[in-house]
Amino acid sequence: MIPNLLTHGWALSPERWVVAAAVTLSFAVVARVLRGVNRSGALAGGLACFLLFAVAGPGACAALSALFLLIWLSTRLGYRTKHHLGIAEHREGRNGWQISANLGVAALSAVTFGITGNGAWLTAAAGALAEAATDTVASEIGQTLNQTALLITTWEAVPAGTDGGITVAGTLSGVAAGTTIAAIATFSGMVPYARFWIPAAAGIFGMLVDSLLGATLQRRGWVNNEAVNLCGTLTAAAMAYALSVSPWHSALRFSI
After folding, report:
1. Is residue 165 left, alpha or beta, with left meaning phi > 0 and alpha meaning psi from -120 to 50?
2. pTM for this one?
3. CA atoms lying within 13 Å on the CB side of residue 131
4. How far, in Å, CA of 149 to CA of 160, rounded?
5. End-to-end distance of the chain based on CA atoms, in angstroms?
6. Of 20, 102, 91, 98, which Cα lies nearest the Cα of 61?
7. Do the bridges between strand 157-159 and strand 148-151 make them parallel or antiparallel, or are there none, so unpaired?
8. Which of 16, 39, 207, 227 is the most buried (most CB within 10 A)?
9. Pairwise CA distance, residues 82 & 71, whole Å
10. Is 167 left (phi over 0), alpha (psi -120 to 50) or beta?
């Protein structure tokens, strides 16, 4: 039934479904061995990888692999400092809820493309992946290089790792990471060249929304970090889709 639903996907033959499954298994095993994820995280990440690869093809898998590498490196960088501050990730890696919050929107956007054939959904998926990279790398690098941050709502100084706190070094690193994901998605054929700027911009905007929600709702205990991350990727995907289908898209077009 799934192959019939995803009529516009990459895996239109049994051989390609096997390739997608093999790559997914390898991705999950490597992520687990590197302790980037725990068991539930490996399952959630494997499902997201399978859907992205089967529907959006190797380009989506390349962007996802780059995302994992960027997050893994930024999380491990300065781990002792972050552990001393009490803000380090668990050594066992991210769990299933965290992975789903970061990758769920991208996977569902890809599936929607597979059903509808509307390429704007692939740009939305790329935007969600770019946001996950932008937000996570910004947070991890900011915590590593700075002891204090500025609260995005009031600009008051707060300890590094505070919900809604931002730093210059972290923000610039996050923008570079998100742009890298957008570039990989573009050069691999997932996103048209003329739309390269869309997932990159959507990733940055989603990161800002994530920080705003962190400084307001999350600090008050109304939502948890996973909900904030989900809202960030959802915002980025929605923005990327809206820009892709807007009638004035050509007026905002930039080429690379």
Report:
1. beta
2. 0.91
3. 37
4. 5
5. 39
6. 20
7. antiparallel
8. 207
9. 15
10. beta
Contacts of 126 (CB under 8 A, 6+ apart): 60, 63, 106, 181, 182, 185, 186, 190, 191, 199, 240
In this structure, what token pair is assigned to residue 203? 């990733």
CA distance 87 to 81: 9
| Three-state SS at 59 | helix
The per-residue pLDDT string of the chain (256 residues; one tens digit each, 9 = 90 and over) reads: 444 556 788 888 888 889 999 999 999 999 898 888 899 999 999 999 999 999 999 999 999 999 999 999 988 886 666 555 555 555 677 888 999 999 999 999 999 999 999 999 999 999 999 999 999 999 989 888 878 889 999 999 998 778 888 999 999 999 999 999 999 999 999 999 989 999 999 999 999 999 999 999 998 999 999 999 999 999 999 999 999 988 755 544 544 3
User: Residue 148 in 3-state DSSP?
Assistant: strand
